[in-house]
Amino acid sequence: MWRRTLSVLALLVLWQIVSLFMKPTILPSPIAVFAQLGQNLTQPETYSQLGVTMFRVVVGMIAGVAVGMIIGLTMGLTKIGEDLLDTWVLVLFTIPALVYGILCILWFGLNDTAAIVAIAVGSAPPIAINIWQGTKAIDRDLIHMGKAFRFGKATVLLKIVVPQLIPYILAALRYGLGIAWKIVTIVELIGLSSGVGYMLSYWFGNFSMIQVLAWTLLFTITLLIIEFAILKPLENRLTRWRPAAQIQRGAA
């Protein structure tokens, strides 16, 4: 933790030094930006705009994770699924997030549906790829053992496959979440009238660099809270069996 804190402090010090040689309209100091962020946090509109963006991200991610996991497991567990889907997943993965945003706005209009569908479609391919590669890396001997003990397919999937996929699933969630934030920002910026992306576009139109950085900082802090308050504790809890398993294997 102290290393992370030190790296953040070093970045803030560098930012402060560089801002001394820049005009406030180009690069305001971190002190001024944090002060503006604190002022924004006293206004109810800030939470409503952030809440709208979070709603779009959460709903879109739920759909993207569900589709990505189904496709990834299909590709990883069956040769036919891999042959049929791998090309399309890679093609969808290479399409820029901006394209998904534009297409969904044209298809669904300027509403929440456009943002949610764009997030789901944009986050599903990287999640599928992570699950696909993770499934190919699992210990097949455990699957054969489960079949030898006459476990059903559902039991093999839930008790043997999924626990080994937990690190890959969490990595996919992190990667998909980053893409989801980018997509929702783009959609809100180019077409919607609410959300963090809209506020960035609004203050950009007013040439307020300090507000642009303050909203960007709010965006970043939100992601860090999700990482260290939700994903990291979840990862520690779900993978706490792994060190013991490695010790037992080494002893054997």
TrEMBL record:
Localisation per UniProt entry: Cell membrane
PROSITE patterns linked to this entry: ABC_TM1 (PS50928)
Keywords: Cell membrane, Membrane, Transmembrane, Transmembrane helix, Transport
Topology of this chain in the membrane: Multi-pass membrane protein
Segments traversing the membrane: 54-76, 88-108, 114-133, 154-173, 179-200, 212-231
InterPro entries: MetI-like, MetI-like_sf
Annotated Pfam families: BPD_transp_1
Residue intervals of the ABC transmembrane type-1 domain: 50-230
Domain of life: Bacteria
Family recorded in the similarity comment: Belongs to the binding-protein-dependent transport system permease family.
Protein name: ABC transporter permease
Species of the source: Naasia aerilata
